[in-house]
């Protein structure tokens, strides 16, 4: 069992020997690894842009930036996203800070 779950960490020779005696990687793990590898990577800038767009839609509709922590907007967990931006504001660029401030985010 350990060989199946740790298949990726095994040397190719070890995999070949296990395959020769009928031990293969677990199908579920193989499928999960393939799905993770196929999933496109989203850049931080793209995630920030999606969050900013969701926040703009929220502000347009609600007229304020007091987003409930569990609120989702346009596929973005907006409450969590905004909370994270505030907590990590020292890592945001001046442009990003300006974009948030333009929507009414107060620090």
Topology, please?
Layout: H1 2-5, H2 12-20, H3 27-38, H4 44-62, H5 78-87, H6 94-102
Structure description:
59% of the residues lie in helices and 0% in strands. It is mainly alpha-helical and 107 residues long. It has 2 domains: 2-38, no CATH class; 44-102, no CATH class. The longest helix is centred in the middle third of the chain and has 19 residues, at 44-62. The N and C termini lie far apart (51 Å).
**Count of DSSP strands:** 0
Distance between the termini: 51 Å
Overall, the morphology is elongated
What's the helix count? Answer: 6
Order of helices and strands: HHHHHH
User: Number of domains in the coordinates?
Assistant: 2
Average pLDDT over all residues = 87
Rg over CA atoms, rounded to whole Å, is 22 Å
Low-confidence stretches: none
Structural class: mainly alpha
Helical amount? 55-70%
Largest sheet: none
Beta-strand percentage range: under 5%
Short structural description:
With 107 residues, this protein is mainly α. The chain has helices at residues 2-5, 12-20, 27-38, 44-62, 78-87, 94-102. Helix content is 59%, strand content 0%.
Structure characteristics:
107 residues; 6 helices
